[in-house]
Specification:
Layout: E1 6-8, H1 12-17, E2 27-32, H2 42-48, E3 50-56, E4 67-69, H3 74-84, E5 89-92, H4 120-128, E6 137-140, H5 155-165, E7 172-174, E8 186-188
């Protein structure tokens, strides 16, 4: 998605494995928690030119402009970031939340060193508890998605609806569901007004 304004990847290892993303022209984002030790991404931010936003567990989406909730998956985190960046209309694409044709991801397994067993049922429960904040519309344009908490429609319908109601906001794209080439790779088209955490 070379036109995207933002690219989100949860794991520092993801950024190390996918060095080709270092050339991405938009803002690159990841979650960060310096106090938590297990999610300190200061070195990854320096190495890959990442903007980092504080991440923490929590029910639903964070509305604190300096904090995203983890939701146990990068798609959830990217969606929370899109909300904080000002998106008012978000179309989910590639949020299958299930195995398709025996594959956990459209591309197969993650490279060695990345999480290999997506916990789709657990992920979906986090989304179920995450209502869109006031003024934000979230629709799911993923055919056959197991994620049922947002209105379902085709991508064409979502784009048509967007065009008739909103102007210049966001489409969140998660090419899979967790942290590897595509999965956890979320392209966000929007403008940024979120502080960079360090």
């Amino acid at each position: 998605m070379p036109w995207a304004d933002a690219l989100y990847g949860c794991d520092a290892r993801w950024w190390d494995i996918h060095k080709d993303c270092d050339g991405f022209a938009g803002a690159k984002w990841s979650s960060h928690d310096k106090e938590g030790q297990s999610n300190d991404k200061t070195a990854a931010a320096d190495k890959h030119g990442l903007h980092i936003v504080k991440g923490a567990p929590g029910g639903g989406f964070s509305t604190d402009p300096a904090l995203i909730h983890y939701g146990d998956n990068s798609g959830f985190q990217a969606l929370n970031l899109a909300i904080l960046l000002g998106a008012t209309y978000i179309v989910l694409v590639g949020f299958d939340m299930r195995h398709v044709k025996g594959k956990s991801h459209f591309f197969g397994d993650h490279p060695q060193g990345l999480f290999q067993r997506p916990e789709y049922e657990s992920f979906a429960k986090k989304f179920d508890k995450a209502a869109a904040p006031d003024g934000v519309t979230i629709v799911n344009a993923t055919p056959g998605s197991a994620l049922k908490c947002y209105p379902m429609m085709s991508l064409d319908e979502a784009i048509e609806s967007y065009g008739s109601v909103h102007r210049h906001r966001s489409i969140a794209h998660n090419t899979t569901d967790r942290n590897s080439k595509g999965e956890g790779l979320s392209a966000l088209r929007m403008q940024s007004n979120i502080p960079n955490c360090s």
